Amino acid sequence: MTDEIQLIEQLKSDTHKESAFRELITLYKERLYWHIRNIVKSHDDTDDVLQNTFIKIYKNIGNFKGDSKLFSWMYRIATNESITFINKNAKRLQTSNQEVQDLAINNLASDVYFEGDAIQLKLQQAIATLPEKQQLVFNMKYFEDIKYKDMSEILETSEGALKASYHLAVKKIEAFLTED
Q1: Measured distance between the N- and C-terminal CA atoms of the chain, rounded to whole angstroms
Q2: CATH: 3.40.190.170, 1.10.940.10, 1.10.1740.10, 3.40.50.2300. Which one for 2-178?
Q3: For residue range 110-133, what is the model confidence (pLDDT) as tens digits?
């Protein structure tokens, strides 16, 4: 925790900001990449959203108050950037967010960066049928193993609501995977 406080102080200082930011990227790039990838699905889109996320973090680190963990604050930015990206795509394509998600899932099979098999693809299709909030909660719990306490900081909601969302998401996914 002391390291995080020190990193935040360096990020907010004029003399150490650049090197501290490089360290921040090294520490969190992979975790944020996979968090975003679970939401937007495509590798190329994920890279774009990740870049936007780090730009926003860089520009707004001075506003970070320390009310939550730095990790939670950055995940909230990454989540919001991902949702904004999906919304912009839906608007640009003049379609719904669900259709954008369906298109992303359909493109996964041909994505050279997708290493999953048919079962992974089916799981992604099942996740795509969930409401946005349940998708987020399921991905964060199932793929990233984020604790409900941390998730409640990131998504700004109660642990109880998150547990209920996860439970519902699991039931819906099980039903999707077992239907013929």
Answers
A1: 49
A2: 1.10.1740.10
A3: 565 656 666 777 888 888 888 889
